[in-house]
Each structure stands twice: as C-alpha cells, then as structure tokens.
Amino acid sequence: MDAVILAGGLGTRLRSVVADSPKALALINGHVFLEYLLEQLAEICDIQSVTLAIGYKADAVKEQYADHSYPFDIVFSEEQSPLGTGGALKKALSYTKSDKILVLNGDSYLEFSFEKLLETFKKNKADAVIVTTHVINANRFGLIKETDGRIEQFLEKSLEMLPGTVNGGIYLMKRFLLEELSLEGAFSLEKEVFPLWMQKRLFVSPTSGLFIDIGTPESFALAQTLLRDKL
Fold this sequence. Notes:
Blueprint: E1 2-6, H1 15-18, E2 27-28, E3 31-32, H2 33-42, E4 49-54, H3 58-64, E5 73-78, H4 84-92, E6 100-105, E7 108-110, H5 114-123, E8 128-135, E9 143-147, E10 150-155, E11 164-174, H6 175-179, H7 189-196, E12 202-206, E13 211-213, H8 217-226
Parallel strand pairs: 1-4, 1-6, 4-5, 8-12
Antiparallel strand pairs: 2-3, 6-11, 7-13, 8-11, 9-10
C-alpha cells in the first residue's frame, strides 16, 4: 500500500514561531514535525512508498529527506502553486500505484490503529474511511455526523465552543475515487471533495488516541509537550 502526506502548507499562522520554514518542517522538541508522521508509517508493514505532497519551500523538504533510513521509498509530488488539500492529493496520485491509498494531513498528529482502520474498511466494503476523534472544542474542525459508522453529513465549523466528533486528518480510500474526480486546479478535500462523495460508502474509524494540530502558535506550543515521548 502507498501513503501520501499532505505537507504543502504555508504555515501562515505559525510565522511568529517558525519564521519562514514550511509547516511540515517546524521543529517539535528538536525534530521536524514530519518525522512524527513518518515514524507512524514506519510501524505499518503494509506501507511500501510514501509520497510527500509539497509546495512552499519544497527544496527544503527534499533536502531533509534526500537520504533516509525509513523502510519505504520517499518520493515528492511538488506543486508549483498552492493546490489545496484536494488538488495536492490528486496530483500526488500519479506517484502511487496501490488500489488503496493511506492519506495523512501534514499538520496534525493522531494516534490510531492501522489494523482497526483496515478492518473497518474491509468489513464495511467501504470506498473511504476517515479516522475520527472526539474533541472538547470542535469549532476549528467542523463536525462529522454518522449512524452505525456510516457518514451522513459533514457539518461546517461553528463559532460556538461545542464538543463533538471531528475529522482526524487520516484517510484510507480507494484510488478510483480520486481518479474519477472532475475537479481541477486548487480545491479542498474536506470542503469540496468529501461532500461530493456522500453517495459513496464513507465510514468512520474512531480513535481515542492523542490528537494535536500544530496550525496555531498555541497548539504548536502544546505539541512540544504532548509529543515529547513520541520519537
């Protein structure tokens, strides 16, 4: 199985703490953030190749992984202009070969069981499975409504501080879903693609593992503590 990490983010909100580095190369306890995600994938024996979908400061990411000791190949899908999470994933597809693709957001860390995710995928004959988690304040993420594990609705972000089940930024999906996408250029996986797939077999795989998004200075600072023992 091939994996894709969406690591092309500019990290605009992190400028005050990471200067001009790509968000995926932001330092957490002296290690670039991507290391935490690659270590997760290294524990999954099924992963043969990882494509890093990169954009801003792409050369810095390439240099970081010109040599590596991971048990899989690392290849780069470079966007010349921002493509959003959907456009970046569609572009990265050409660097993959497997019928199922494991996708990770490059700016969040979530502890999950790949075995459980794969079991959910097979048991439900799913087209795609989203790893979800429960948070106290869901207004940064939007909510997912499901019944018996099948996704019924994606709810927009709310200004209210409400708890709920949110998209954890990890997906297992059949490649044909991406091959059939008619969208071109820059577009969002979360806002534009997932709603288009509501007639497909979309399921959730809940996890209660550690979840941290490094997208703000506050959450970036919190990650320094929460991820201290993860490498």
